Amino acid sequence: MRIKIINPNTTQSFTDALQKLADTVSRPDTEIFAVNPASGPASIESFYDEALSVPGVLEEIIKGDREENIDAYVLACFGDPGLYAARELTDKPVLGIAEAAFHMAVMSGAYFTIVTTAPRVRFMTEHLVNRYGFSEQCKNIRTTPMKVLDLATSPETAIAKVIAECLLAIKEDHAEAIVLGCAGMSQYREYIEQQIGIPVIDGTVAAVKLCEAMVDMKLGTSKVLTFSWPRPEMAPQGRQLNIA
């Protein structure tokens, strides 16, 4: 099968890291294609950044169906930008890494804490937890004093801050599992878990493995109502979003 991982930001080093990680955890018969849009924000740390990233995400979905014979898609940003719109553009599985991580976390422990990046994203993360229905299982959302790009430029310092918050989550939140709240943390999941001693869930890995399961089960995106195809006349002029 062919799974396309879409990094919604334009930082190539993050995309390369996602490709390497997914190649490691995917099955031998799974081909992984990690991409990022040609234009958009370098990182996604606000609602504005998220909105700017969505057109590029949707174009990658359309390209995947039209030209690349993709079987499933992963949106590799913890805000799951454009997830529902992407599901309208394809009948293949489309998974956001936050949604995938939450589902995996509650199968690993009764309660989980999210450890994410800058304090500004707390409100965005709360929206995700509520939207997906995990308010009762999510014990806390812990932010760290860093920017997303710190994970690329100063990874040792950044991951040390993540580990410190994870340890506080165990002590103060009584968390039984940790969800990493940024795709930039994905490649450090195993190391973080070794340091803290409880399950650590990375949404990218969770989404890839769930995509493999959905393709095996021949499950796609239902087109019967909510995620039915967009009206052709609504496609923006001059873009590749015309699916007619």
UniProtKB/TrEMBL annotation:
InterPro entries: Asp/Glu/hydantoin_racemase, Asp/Glu_race, Hydantoin_racemase-like, Iso_Racemase_Enz_sf. Transmembrane segments: none annotated. This is Hydantoin racemase. Belongs to the HyuE racemase family. PANTHER family: PROTEIN DCG1. It is an enzyme of class 5 (isomerase). It catalyses: D-5-isobutylhydantoin = L-5-isobutylhydantoin; D-5-benzylhydantoin = L-5-benzylhydantoin; a D-5-monosubstituted hydantoin = a L-5-monosubstituted hydantoin. The lineage of its organism: Bacteria, Pseudomonadati, Pseudomonadota, Gammaproteobacteria, Aeromonadales. Its EC number is 5.1.99.5. It comes from Oceanisphaera profunda. GO terms for molecular function: amino-acid racemase activity; hydantoin racemase activity.
